[in-house]
Amino acid sequence: MAETTLEEARDGAVAIKGRTPWQITRSRLTRDKVTMVALGAAIFFIVLAAIAPLLTTLKIIDPYTNHSDLVGGLGSLPLGPFGGVSGTHWMGVEPGIGRDIFARVIAGLTTSLTVAVSAAVFSVVLGTIIGIIAGTTGGWVDWLLSRVIEFVLSFPQTLMLIALSTIVIDLIRAGTHVSRTPASMIFMIVVMGFFGWPNFARIIRGQVLSLREREFVEAARSLGAGRWRIYFKELLPHLWAPILVYATLIMPQNIATEAALGFLGVGIQAPTPSFGSILNDSVSYAQADPAYFIFPGVTLFLVVLSFNLLGDGLRDALDPKADRQ
Known about the structure:
By secondary structure, the chain is mostly helical.
């Protein structure tokens, strides 16, 4: 009887198929509907920001031309309901000068994502390199780099951005002979990236401390692998998960920082569109023309929310301790 039961169990057994870490992560992501919606929204915003310059060149959108016939005179409110919303101007027009709000929001999305992505890449690359070196080398090198990290973290990022903006932007313009808008973008990318890498370097250092004594690292050392091969061939492939999660989580922070600086008047300057400058201009019309404030504000909210939810979802999906059912 036992043998029959054993044979039946053997015949009815279901083959167990192993799954790679990527397959496990993809399975978790596809089950998380909120993260998938956030991923779709983030991709949509990135693609829209990427093609916005082409749309401007082809005159499909026009963020700079004034439409005085759509407002009741210079400085007047837009004609028509809800800020001049129509089939041609989906978000209405600006009070006073009549520029298309939808076009300026799309162009501002390009500006904000360019700054946010560039600063995130700056932080991730610098933080990864310093974190790997500190965690692997140890000794006085680790001590020195840890003190540098603590020193940089002691500076308030927003205050430094405001305090250094005029001086550094003028230096960049003098050294590169570019206009104020590219100079201000370079300034924000460098400063935001510089103040963003220490937290990431700490994360990478902690991961490396747990990896550097693993068997594959010891085997590479015993085979005569050099320091840089251990850094980037042995350790770096095992760090892609925290790198991806951190890059996704720092994106909304960079977008919000760029918007805040533009709102305070030290970010991207007019006439170049950015979320901060648009919201700064719209505050004066918050009661008379609420659409001018609502449409850019809601767009900024959705962009930041999508990247935040995507980062949270990726963090959960890449967690090795999470449920794998």
